[in-house]
Amino acid sequence: MDIDPARRNKKPRLLLETEREKLDEFVDSIHYSARYNDDKFEYRHVQLPKNMLKKIPADYFDSAKGTLKLLWEEEWRALGITQSLGWEHYEVHEPEPHILLFKRPLNYQPPLQQ
């Protein structure tokens, strides 16, 4: 379940302040699932308000699929998604493109800061 680099921007595309302001009204309506896991990863899904997708810049979307690209951490955090460290956006639920799927290794420990 590796991340396909072709489904991401080559490098994080940060939001302009004006773009971020358009998303602020939706942040409190973002829904976070409970965590669930298999033997390697823990998972969660994040449900964005459907109307929020209309305010996200076009270059965050995969034009071939009509869904969001796989987002770098800087990108999903800029959208207003808040999670602890270590989460990686690995898939978009195509039938419901406002649902983003995240994973991180089981028992993830953030690196120690020095």
From TrEMBL:
<dbReference type="InterPro" id="IPR000789">
    <property type="entry name" value="Cyclin-dep_kinase_reg-sub"/>
</dbReference>
<dbReference type="GO" id="GO:0000307">
    <property type="term" value="C:cyclin-dependent protein kinase holoenzyme complex"/>
</dbReference>
<dbReference type="GO" id="GO:0051301">
    <property type="term" value="P:cell division"/>
</dbReference>
<comment type="similarity">
    <text>Belongs to the CKS family.</text>
</comment>
<dbReference type="Pfam" id="PF01111">
    <property type="entry name" value="CKS"/>
</dbReference>
<dbReference type="InterPro" id="IPR036858">
    <property type="entry name" value="Cyclin-dep_kinase_reg-sub_sf"/>
</dbReference>
<keyword id="KW-0131">Cell cycle</keyword>
<protein>
    <recommendedName>
        <fullName>Cyclin-dependent kinases regulatory subunit</fullName>
    </recommendedName>
</protein>
<comment type="function">
    <text>Binds to the catalytic subunit of the cyclin dependent kinases and is essential for their biological function.</text>
</comment>
<dbReference type="GO" id="GO:0016538">
    <property type="term" value="F:cyclin-dependent protein serine/threonine kinase regulator activity"/>
</dbReference>
<keyword id="KW-0132">Cell division</keyword>
<dbReference type="GO" id="GO:0030295">
    <property type="term" value="F:protein kinase activator activity"/>
</dbReference>
